[in-house]
Amino acid sequence: MSDIVLGISLQELCVQEGITETLVIEVVEHGIAEPLAGNDFNDWIFELNSVHWMKKAIRLYHDLDIDWVSIAIVIDLLKQKDVLLRENERLKKQLDRFVNNVTDLH
Q1: What pLDDT digit, counting tens, does each position of 53-80 carry?
Q2: Alpha carbons 58 and 27: distance in angstroms, whole number
Q3: What DSSP string runs through 25-70?
Q4: Residue 1 pLDDT class (50, 70, 90 cuts)
Q5: What is the pTM of this model?
Q6: 53 CB contacts (<8 Å, ≥6 apart)?
């Protein structure tokens, strides 16, 4: 079974979000998002999850007027938070199943 990955080209992204290629290049240069494919920036394809983080970064850049290095740190922390929240939810479900199984045995 193969995983399906949805992507968007740099040009489509810029048109859809109303942003410039230069802005996207800055985001990529700071490691906030990375292209899924494409060697030259004109050929870049971005995964939709990467676009999600890119949009957050650009919003932070415009709203808070802070530098890209700081934004990269904030985005990294937000990504870590999301991973921890998903892991916490998974563990809660696992614990619930365990508790239910123990309760059913008695």
Answers
A1: 999 999 999 999 899 999 999 999 999 9
A2: 8
A3: HHHHHTTS---SB-SSGGG-EEEHHHHHHHHHHHHHHHHH---HHH
A4: low
A5: 0.77
A6: 32, 33, 75, 78, 79
> Residues in the chain, how many?
106
DSSP-based three-state secondary structure for 23: helix
Kindly report the average pLDDT of the chain as a whole number. 90
The two tokens of residue 41 are 């920036």
Closest Cα to residue 66, out of 30, 20, 14, 102?
30
Query: Residue 18 carries which DSSP code?
Result: T
Reading the block at residue 29, the tokens are 């240069």
Q: Could you give phi then psi for residue 95, rounded to 5 degrees?
A: -65, -45
**Is residue 7 classed as helix, strand or coil in its secondary structure?**
strand
